[in-house]
Specification:
This protein has about 220 residues and is of the alpha/beta class. It has helices at about 1-55, 140-145, 175, 185-205; strands at about 70-75, 100-105, 110-115, 115-125, 135, 150-160. It has a domain at about 70-180: Barwin-like endoglucanases (Beta Barrel). It is built from four helices and six strands. Helix 2 (about 140-145) runs antiparallel to helix 4. The longest helix has about 50 residues, at about 1-55. This is 3D domain-containing protein. Keywords: Signal.
Length: about 220
């Protein structure tokens, strides 16, 4: 009888030890799996959060260098009524200057070419402009009105940093007009005509279109 009890106790002890070992092994495996999955979940959570609050530094896709795009272009001047309370400062924190353009679909620092003349993206347009829109900085409102609204072909030249110096000089609006195709001339002249009417009204009323412009020192 005693021998049977001893054998039974030994068997129970072995079973308990095996169960404890199995439980610890499974726990270790579970912990190992959970640990390996945490970083992926963590990254996904941050990606989702950043996409919602718009803080992704390079959330705009990098279009391959050499790509040509047709864009709708307008112009703006250093006036708080066309930008914000700091019309001389770009969205990148640099000072506006000839060659600066605003665009929402390209990363800041993108260098583009219009008619073989280089520009750099350092500013942003109003968020309602979704798609291929650019805004060319010009030193006065009258020049921006003369520029009007145009369809242009741009080429992605390189990806630099805001503040990079551009080698090529910035052309006047008349220089850019030379690359507009004949099929677009009618719509362009309509735009220019509308701008001329607006300028004429301003001149008749003796109102200076540049009265709100500020001088931005480099």
């Amino acid at each position: 009888m005693c021998i049977v009890l001893v054998i039974g106790c030994v068997a129970v002890s072995l079973l308990c030890a095996h169960a404890v070992h199995a439980q610890s092994t499974l726990g270790a495996q579970r912990m190992q799996i959970d640990t390996s999955e945490i970083p992926q979940a963590h990254r996904s959570w941050w990606q989702v959060l950043l996409s919602y609050v718009g803080l992704k530094s390079n959330s705009r896709s990098a279009i391959p260098v050499g790509t040509k795009l047709r864009v709708i272009s307008s112009a703006y001047a250093p006036s708080k009524y066309q930008t914000d309370d700091t019309p001389c400062i770009t969205a990148a924190g640099t000072t506006v200057r000839p060659g600066v353009v605003a665009a929402n679909f390209l990363p800041l620092g993108t260098i583009i070419a219009i008619d073989n003349v280089k520009y750099i993206v350092e500013d942003r347009m109003n968020s309602r402009f979704k798609g291929y829109f650019i805004d060319v900085w010009l030193p006065s409102t009258s020049e921006a009105l003369d520029f009007g609204r145009q369809k242009l072909e741009i080429t992605i030249v390189a990806y630099g940093k805001p503040g990079d110096m551009l080698v090529s000089p910035t052309p006047t609006p008349s220089k850019i007009l030379q690359q507009i195709t004949e099929l677009e001339q009618e719509s362009i002249w309509n735009t220019i005509g509308n701008s001329a009417v607006l300028i004429g009204r301003l001149l008749v009323s003796k109102v200076d279109p540049n009265r709100y412009d500020v001088t931005c020192s480099q």
